[in-house]
Amino acid sequence: MIGYSLERLFHSAIVIIVMSFVIYGLMGLMPGDPIDLMISADPKLTPADAEHLRTLYGLDQPIFQRYINWLGTVFQGDLGYSRLFAQPVLEAIAPALFNTVKLLGLAIILSLLIALPVGIWAGSRPQTKTDYTINLLAFSGISIPPFWLALLLIIVFAVLLPILPASGLPTGEGGFWETLRHLILPVSTIVIASIGGHTRYMRASMIETLRQDYIRTAVAKGASPRRVVLSHALRNALIPVVTIIALDFGALFSGALITETIFSYPGMGKLIFDSIMGNDFNLALVALLFATFLTLIGNLLADLAYAWLDPRVSYKGRER
Amino acid sequence: MISSLKQHRLIAVSGFILLTLGTIAAAAPLAEVLLGLDANQVDLFNRFAPPDSQHILGTDELGRDVLIRLLYGGQVSLLVGLIAAVAAALLGTTIGLIAGYYGGKVDAIMMRFTDGVISLPLLPLLIVLAAIDLEKLGIPEAIANSENVSLYRIILIVALAGWTTVARLVRGAALSLRERDFVLAAIAYGASPFRIMAVHILPNLLSPIIVATTLSVGNIILLESVLSFLGLGIQPPVASWGNMLTNAQELIWSTPTLAIYPGLLIFLTVIAFNFLGDGLQDALDPKKSR
Predict the structure, then answer these.
(1) Buried b / exposed e across B128-142, counting CB within 10 Å, b at 16+?
(2) Of B125, B132, B267, the CB nearest to A29
(3) Given an 8 Å threshold on Cβ–Cβ distance, is A273 in contact with B133?
(4) Across the interface, which of B112, B124, B137 has its CB nearest the CB of A29?
(5) Domain count, chain B
(6) Neighbour count for residue B246 (Cβ, 10 Å)
(7) What is the DSSP letter of A61?
(8) Chain B residues within an 8 Å CB radius of A32
(9) Residue B287 pLDDT grade (very low, low, confident, very high; cuts 50, 70, 90)
(10) How much is the ipTM here?
(11) How many CB atoms lie within 10 A of CB A65?
(12) What is the arithmetic mean of pLDDT over A259-288?
């Protein structure tokens, strides 16, 4: 188990190093460059000055050298300065990260609270009317474009029946209830967008588990259907669901980006979008790496949890 | 038996919806002629016109006909979705076949790479890809700024996001097929690896590949619409269902109906593709029938 954990940790470390280079390289391909921005801000700069600045900032060096230099400053604890927020990158990211954790945390908990029981219910009676109805609803949730869903919620609850605010955070000090009221629409968007997938995972896993031999034994011994599902099947059926849900972290983050942008909710997703659109390279680079890093940690934990929860999984040469 | 009939009905209904949508979208030029309209004709004196006999769904914020733009948008969204899904399937099949056939180190490296891609927060990275300046990649300015580039670019970008499912599926199936007698016989006869993969393994994988591709079309259309909505996909004046919603957010206070139609069509298309894929999966996979 320890060997397996170390191996997975090693793989994640490789992915994050490769991704940091890829993202760094991509940032260099964004429209406009820092020196051009300086020139446009100060018309007195001559082309000779621009050349000088380029050398000063090391922008004339090959990309790999620049990446190594950047990595050096990062390890000294200097993540750079955000042009858009006019503050150090880390200070801009910290509150955004907190806001996203709040938004996604609420959304995941709500989604699972509804999806798991519904999925178990549908999965224990496949091919019935109940199952078909739940399946139809789950597919609708998966297929709805999240940004359109957000617009619809705004139209219904903020325009037609003006009972909820159309933005994600109250202006000024709103207090607890006011904050919660502003969170209703963004959280609902993410819940509706992810609940279908969660329900289908749970349902599929339940159906699969109910086909196992030990379930047949339990039924043959005369256990009631309710007891078979809840005491015999449920625990094993939950294992793959735990993993898939943790693996979905990246997708969830994509949903947060859309939702936060539409509701102007100051989280990581909106921050990444704004920094890319606003040519704030320092901020975009670090924020993207942060998001990648967190997703990888989520996946790593999912993998380890899976291996730990399910003793049937062999750590060597595991097939997934 | 009842369930298999139900599955076939599901395939028929979703297939019919998709064919109808495709046919109507393809008929956009005809509709233009019949109604005497032009998709990109701006008419600032006739903005936000309510539906009438000429503008069946009214006009948008620039006075363009909403129905005609929806039809042209449908052409773009469906084409991008289908082409990108096929491209993603080709890429995924190639990677999965090679990994599954060779096994061992090759497999380990390729699947670690696939896992790495799967675990990334895709949308932010795709936004970066959509925002990069093509001229900095050494592509001539005339090509980088031409109208069709945004189309090819979005196809490439969403295809990059969609190949992983197919790759893992093909790899898993190829791993087990490689041990089957007919493949071992072909190896013994001295067939080249390419021939074995193309002639002996691939044909046995067609149905799972078709299912995975169909299921991925829906996701790819969603992704294209999100990127276009954010202003990073299909660029106006070319209409796509996603970019028709870009301005909808500012307009929902005055004309909420403009936000309804494009989203409804995306939803209908994506759910039809998902049901089609689900139906095909059950119909083509005998192990799954219950």
Answers:
(1) bbbbbebeeeeeeee
(2) B132
(3) no
(4) B137
(5) 1
(6) 17
(7) S
(8) 133
(9) low
(10) 0.86
(11) 11
(12) 90
Nearest Cα residue to A70 out of A81, A82, A79: A79
Enumerate the β-bridge partners of residue B65. B59
B84 in any annotated domain: yes
Q: Is the peptide bond before B237 cis (omega within 30 degrees of 0)?
A: yes
In chain A, domain spans? 2-87, 89-313
Measure B195 CA to nearest chain A CA, in Å.
26
Is the Cα torsion angle B105, B110, B111, B116 positive or negative in sign? positive
CA distance A143 to A135: 12
pTM for the whole thing?
0.87
Q: Note the pLDDT of residue A188.
A: 94
Taking only the tens place, the pLDDT of each residue in B119-154 is 788 888 899 888 887 777 777 776 766 767 888 888
Distance CA B205, CA B170 (A): 7
Query: What's the distance, CA A173 to chain centroid?
Result: 28
Task: Tell me the C-alpha distance between B119 and B117, whole Å.
Answer: 5
A56/A66 Cα distance (integer angstroms): 12
Does residue B45 belong to the interface with chain A, where contact is any CB pair within 8 Å?
Answer: no
pLDDT digits (tens, 9 = 90+) for B5-15: 667 888 899 99
Please indicate, yes or no, if residue B44 is contained in any of the structural domains: no
d(CA A199, CA A202) in angstroms, rounded, equals 5
Q: Do the Cβ atoms of B119 and A291 come within 8 Å?
A: no
Helix, strand or coil, per DSSP, at residue B49: coil
Helices (H), B132-256: 141-144, 149-177, 181-188, 193-195, 206-229, 248-251
What's domain A89-313's superfamily in CATH? MetI-like (1.10.3720.10)
Domain that holds residue B159: 2-39+56-283
Tokens for A260? 């936060």
